[in-house]
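User: Before I run my own analysis I want an independent prediction to cross-check against. Here's the chain; please return only the structure tokens and, at the end, one sentence I can use as a sanity check.
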Amino acid sequence: MVTENKESKNTRYSLGLALYAHMKYFRNRIAQYEDETDYVDTYGALLTRCVRVAMKLQELDIGEDDIVGACTHNHRNSCVPFIASTFIGAIPVTFDPAISDIDTVSLLRLMQPKVIFISQEMLKDFETYMEKAQVKPAYTIVFGESRGQYMSFDEFLKPNIKERQFKVYETSNPKKTAVVVFSSGTTGLPKGICLNHYTLLKQSGSFRDDWPEIINSDTVDSVILLYSTLYAISAVGTLIGAVLKGEAKVLCKSFNAKRFFEIVEKYKRCVASGESTDMTPFF
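Assistant: Structure tokens:
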């Protein structure tokens, strides 16, 4: 059970502020390894992209309590809409490319995202899902090349002369919803689970009461193999925890037993994070 420390001196904070502060502090550490391309991403580079996307969303009048959706496999930019949303007080939600059509349509109706980021390979299917759900986000952004009526994610990464003046969202209400994840749907259609700023930070590292004791800001002992998308609460916790500790993640698009052992051999000290179905080949 999570209990609130009433003696805390901080009266305004947020999940986004915690992520921003730690990404800036750990800017020289490696944040992500992209398995398919061997791309190496530092926290500093990732933070720059998140700030630019956050500022672009603000230009589109996206802000506090607006729902920002995403549907994509894991890659270097898959977490950017999530983190950028927390920077401006918007609420990120992630739709998993692997769940059923019926579940996706139901969740779209439930969440009614104001803006959504979609991978190129999921775009055609998502157009069908949105039509069935009778949901039309104000903006649809595509990772990769986009059709004429949609915006390209690359447009969100253009430099902004006001980046250094960017102010991260803060709130005086720690129980305000910060993120929405979804239930498994094993006993019916998946349902939304609202997670507030306080709970997420307490469970993932406690930014509010105990700033982490940092010994060396340039090295980490292990990396996290991330197979789940941010649809899963476990992946959300893994992402937040990794940022607060300055840990690196290996982004894997899908699980492959042979490749799993190759990655473990490559990075030596690894912690795997994924759905139980990912591990089926081991049983």
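Sanity check: The chain has a mean pLDDT of 85.
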